[in-house]
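INFO worker-7 received task bundle
INFO bundle size: 2
INFO processing item 0
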Amino acid sequence: MNWISNYVRPKINSLFSKRDTPDNLWTKCPECGTMLFHRELADNQNVCTNCDHHMHITPRERFSALFDGGIFVEVAVPEPIEDPLKFRDQKKYPDRMKSAQKNTGEKEAMLVAEGEISRTPVVCAAQDFSFMGGSMGMYVGNAFIAGVERAIALKRPFIMFSAAGGARMQEGILSLMQMPRTTVAIEMLKEAGLPYIVVLTHPTTGGVTASYAMLGDVQISEPNALICFAGPRVIEQTIREKLPEGFQRAEYLLDHGMLDRVTHRNKLKEELATILRMLGGLPPVVAGDLPPPSAEEAPKALEKPEGDAK
């Protein structure tokens, strides 16, 4: 046995050989170019630790950080008709849906859940921009209405996190019909005397902006979020003029009275808790006074009312 060839050389080669590194360990910030370690980025709620750029965050990740103890219960959503127009462009609509479901691990572009924020019971809905651009189709309309009905049944405030490229073209007029449907649902909330709070995230555009995203009792946005109906490039090409710096960004809209607050993602839970308790006539949140519920307390905290069929 040649121990140099069979043992020493392989050992040396293993020390100096290139080690494969998984591609998902590092994320490059699209704003400043800083390479961010995935755990550090996740701990900071997908906000760049160098320039504070707010990156995309999924509804589940958002709810895990928002609700006490990361505990929430999903609200069931009625299933719409599958591919009602038999639409096809480069792909069939059902094929696009299957691809989006595989890539995101989600059923559709909106997630609805109930839980507690600083011990304040709420119902929340959030759009997932990674699912076909968060586009508003019949399922999104059904999900919004299901969330509103659940909030009314439980007598809880309703919070909406918007992120969308607009209506879903594969559903045509049926997608556009979600605009009046969701507007009527908001009126139901108002008649029930329940707060409706909107948190606009990057980007919120098109028919979503023209409906439920701009009808909140309180309008909050994450920093530098693009909020518009038609994008700035389209407007510039139409009017043939240069638009103001930061046009249609959250800070610009705040200065011009279309938003109430622009809040950093890491401070959003505290901000929402303060607003919810103020609107509900509850005492203010005191630091350390409202710890997350334990596993034993969680089922009681989210207990459904008697006779509720949902």
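INFO item 0 finished
INFO processing item 1
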Amino acid sequence: MAQTTPRSARPRDAAATKRAILDSALVAFSRSGFDGTGTREIAGNAGVDPRLITRYFGSKEGLFTEVVAELFRTPLIGASGTNRTAARDSLTAESGDPDPMLLILRSAANPQAAEIMRERLETSSQRQLAERLPGDDATARAALLLSMCTGVRMFRNIIGDTAFTHADVDRLATYLERALDAVAAGDSEQDRTSPR
């Protein structure tokens, strides 16, 4: 009788599985918000069993918290003179891209999601940005900078304002960059430009 060799079990890579779930969730939550995204959808796009979301993240809320932590890990906007990329991204980001601003807009109606985002913003990217801004009211100005870019994305990606459809993105990015830089500079900008 021929001897059979036991089939080896398929190796499991927990880190890769967790990463696949997180990548899927980044896109899904940015596109559809907290309430519009289901764990089965996230798991399906990641190619995993939905029960693995509970195993690795505890719950949908736990997964959302991880997504928010990843998207808000670094400041989304910078000090004066460094905002060209932020301005252009606000005018070119597509609705399906992982985008922290769109995540905010599409998830804010859910009180729990809003609390998760507020806590993360205030303790990470907003705080880091405020620490880099000169002058008074740095924390409030950091929040203002974030809300400016969020507002542009709302009009462009969610409302679909047709003014953006055929506009010259480079020109608009220049205007937005100037506005962001003015807020980022604070009083120091006024001090440099006001007559002596």
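INFO item 1 finished
INFO post-check item 1: The chain has two domains: 15-71, 73-187.
INFO post-check item 1: The domain at 73-187 is CATH 1.10.357.10 (Tetracycline Repressor; domain 2).
INFO worker-7 idle
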